Q: What sequence folds into this?
């Protein structure tokens, strides 16, 4: 049973880089999946940040594209999110999620989420 | 971007009721429409993918239908554990986008 676990600082200062890691356990990062970051400000809806494939190929939300980098470490079974120039608008719960290509690309497995606050 | 318009934004219903939530994407997404349930303080959980396929372990009182630009999620007989927020999401175009959510509350 594949499980995802996000980790990282809960507090980030404005203008600094928000960095999070998602560890995949119970399975490996596989070719028939992509791995996304999704965020949710308190009391609001879900926003897709971007995704990465096992090949390292990425897609980002254009609203964040200039600030986002997603990377993958196959040896550690981890994916990472870096969001530069953090502002209060980046305060949110951040989820990592798997999308299965054979399931219409739906997000079938989610981490529990990690809350990040951007504040001085 | 494909905009997802979900309605209603909130809904009050009673245990045993049948409820329907609608999702309308701004362009044709074939059947690349997925539904999620989110309980307070928890991550979303996949209910239905490909517009109509029930995810493993999801009760059969949940069903989805539609294609193109008009989709629905139906709960045939509400149970107490179904009171939550529901999101639709399209997986046809990038960036992936979600509806704004429907909060289902107990009447």
A:
């Amino acid at each position: 049973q594949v499980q995802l676990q996000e980790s990282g600082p809960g507090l980030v200062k404005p203008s600094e880089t928000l960095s999070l890691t998602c560890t995949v356990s119970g399975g490996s990062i596989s070719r028939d999946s992509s791995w996304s970051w999704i965020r949710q400000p308190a009391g609001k809806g879900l926003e897709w940040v971007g995704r990465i494939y096992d090949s390292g190929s990425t897609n980002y939300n254009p609203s964040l594209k200039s600030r986002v980098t997603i990377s993958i470490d196959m040896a550690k079974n981890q994916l990472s999110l870096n969001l530069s120039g953090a502002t209060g608008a980046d305060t949110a719960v951040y989820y990592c999620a798997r999308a299965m290509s054979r399931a219409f690309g739906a997000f079938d497995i989610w981490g529990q989420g990690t809350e990040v606050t951007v504040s001085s | 971007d494909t905009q997802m318009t979900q309605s209603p934004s909130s809904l009050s219903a009673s245990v045993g009721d049948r409820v329907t939530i609608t999702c309308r994407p701004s362009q044709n997404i074939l059947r690349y429409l997925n539904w999620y349930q989110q309980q307070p303080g928890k991550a979303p959980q996949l209910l239905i993918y490909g517009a109509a396929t029930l995810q493993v372990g999801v009760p059969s009182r949940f069903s989805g239908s539609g294609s193109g630009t008009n989709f629905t999620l139906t709960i045939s007989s509400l149970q107490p554990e179904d009171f939550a927020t529901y999101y639709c999401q399209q997986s046809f175009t990038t960036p992936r986008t979600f509806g704004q959510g429907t909060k289902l509350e107990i009447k």
User: Anything to note?
Assistant: The two ends of chain B are 36 Å apart (CA to CA). The mean pLDDT of chain B is 97. The interface with chain A takes residues 1, 31-34, 36, 42-46, 49-51, 53, 55, 87, 89, 91, 94-101 of chain B (CB under 8 Å).
